[in-house]
Amino acid sequence: MEIFSSRVFIDFLLALLAMLTPWWFSLLAGALFFFIFDGFVELLFLALLIDLLYGSPLPRFFGSPFVLSLAVVPLYFLLSALKQKMRF
Description:
- The chain is an all-alpha fold.
- The protein has helices at 2-20, 23-36, 42-54, 67-85.
- The chain has one domain.
- The longest helix is centred in the N-terminal third of the chain and has 19 residues, at 2-20.
């Protein structure tokens, strides 16, 4: 139960960071929390939240406003592979 409550607190913290800080700071905090918690899919939801709040369609990305979300998916798999290689 303690892990669940701490994850809920971290989720609220990340949502607050997404609204108050630059996108790169929020993603850096999410990446750090990725190494603390197992299966931290909140990183993907954080990118989606940032895109929903601040994303604008870019012609070089085929008019998609979800550029950050699409960039975080490979980052998630990269961090997963890196986490398996490290000792925790």
